[in-house]
Amino acid sequence: MDKQDRPRRPTISDVAAAAGVSPKTVSRVINNEPGVRAELADQVLAAVSKLGFRRNTMASSLRSGGQTATIGLIIEDLANPFYSTIAATVANIARTHDTHLITVSSEENPELEQRQFLQLCQRRVDGMIIVPAGSDHSYTRPEVEMGMRMVFLDRPPSGILADSVVIDNAAGARAGIVDLLKDGHRRIGVVIDSPVIYTARERLAGVRSALAEAGIPYDDALVRVGVTNPDEAAHAVATMLDGVDPPTAFFTGNNRSTIGAIQELYRRDSDAALLGFDDFELATLMPRPLTVIAYDVQELGRAATLRLFERIGGDTSWPSETVIPTHLVQRGVQLLKS
Amino acid sequence: MDKQDRPRRPTISDVAAAAGVSPKTVSRVINNEPGVRAELADQVLAAVSKLGFRRNTMASSLRSGGQTATIGLIIEDLANPFYSTIAATVANIARTHDTHLITVSSEENPELEQRQFLQLCQRRVDGMIIVPAGSDHSYTRPEVEMGMRMVFLDRPPSGILADSVVIDNAAGARAGIVDLLKDGHRRIGVVIDSPVIYTARERLAGVRSALAEAGIPYDDALVRVGVTNPDEAAHAVATMLDGVDPPTAFFTGNNRSTIGAIQELYRRDSDAALLGFDDFELATLMPRPLTVIAYDVQELGRAATLRLFERIGGDTSWPSETVIPTHLVQRGVQLLKS
Questions:
Q1: Distances, alpha carbon B101 to alpha carbons A23, B94, B96, B244, in Å
Q2: Which of B203, B192, B320 is nearest to B256 (CA)?
Q3: Nearest CB partner across the interface for A7, out of B70, B84, B146
Q4: pLDDT tens-digit profile of B263-292?
Q5: Across the interface, which of B9, B259, B285 has its CB nearest the CB of A287?
Q6: Cross-strand bridge partners of residue B198
Q7: Full-model pTM
């Protein structure tokens, strides 16, 4: 369709002309301002309806210096079920506040996170929920000082004070290891992400604390860090099982590592116990038993979003940290037959 | 922090005052317009840097009537891995076009889909990708006539002509059934969503076409429609296995039904063959063998997004339908040991 043929989107001026009133009057009616005579308001509304005028929400809110009714969410990777569940939760709560959500992926890259933060500021989002990739968030200070609200999710920020919502990582890992120790395990292989990452660092600390309390010396042959995907986890498990005095149990630091461990343990028909941080939907159909350290992912997203809307609403209280509790759950397909 | 204490975000006027130039000059420098003396431009840039001025992207683009550098994505449910993979793909491509993505969930509700469509129009997104929940999209016509670009994904629209990107549903289902027939199966249970839904309708048509060609009469005791979640699928499989002359194989119409079927078949130690539409990440760890009808989900998202950006870029060609091919893949944990 040729550009000249396309109907032009009606403007406030068009409505004013059609209604026989001034553009200022149209504007006041659209914005529900008081002081417009009822019959004029009716004329305006009739013209609006007839012309199919749809107020440009963005333009109006920016002209009046109001909120954009958008919030931003910076996460690692939308294709990861942990993050997509969080995004879904955040979007649903935002909708109840008539707010839209823009989700961006930082891919664990601090530079990308910073660029996206600044881009979201440029588009004047009302606030942001951030799963930090970087370890220094002082770059956010100028925007925070000018009114940008932020809540950090899953990992706290560094270099600034802000609200955060995190999982009880260390305590959860600790409780899981205590459970393995109760079953008599002494050699426990640990497969985890880089300690540069807060969640991995905390979980490793929980593991080490439980082992230390049980008098089990730290053996770095039983610890593989920097594991970021299932294949690396499978490889780590294989190496440890092929080593001297192999572990009789494994702790995997997140669901990606758990999956790799299941692959390798199943392939070898291994009896080793498996304890993994993070529940996941198909854990109930995994081909061998495992224990997961579970928590309510939706609650993580919900707590962060509600906090953000409190801030957007004008809450200026001191930054808070909300901790989401964990619990142990048995998983694996053998449970279907018991 | 008290509102009065908060630094006001610097405006073009502030920059002009700091640089000793007119606001018009500042505007021209910010917008990279030609004709500004180099030394004046330097003064402006120095003031911008010093004041921490960040151009309000949204306000600028709307004032000039330009694009908002945002696109919308309407899907069923962000927590479903099929949709989150698509959202991740769309967001990544959008980023290469310096565009942000707003994702909204319609929850298969046509009214909600319509409301969200109109809300996205109100915020002047440059275009939208829509997985339709409804069966009548004539409501979009006024907006399309005024320039809104749309690409439909996974299901075509009704009541309007628009680009669409769909999976080769009927052919994929057909090929899967032909494969089961080759293995000697004659009684095949079908577990599928409502035929009101395009993908379910097409897949069922493919199944029926393959059975008809093999001379197998349609037996509606072997077809359960309206199945929307794993538990319903498990129940459907159980009912059919408990019936007279039970099926020796099952076809499940999507990954949610496949999961329910796996649960039930595993629980009963059933030898029945399982053919499911949709691959999924943990299909490789499922506790019993299955065949999946697979396709490239990212390609689905990619094709739709690229088409949308062609439209945003001014392409006015006749609407196209892109069909994503399928192929059969063996899954299940037994493959790890073969």
A1: 33, 7, 12, 52
A2: B192
A3: B146
A4: 999 999 999 999 999 999 999 999 999 999
A5: B285
A6: none
A7: 0.80
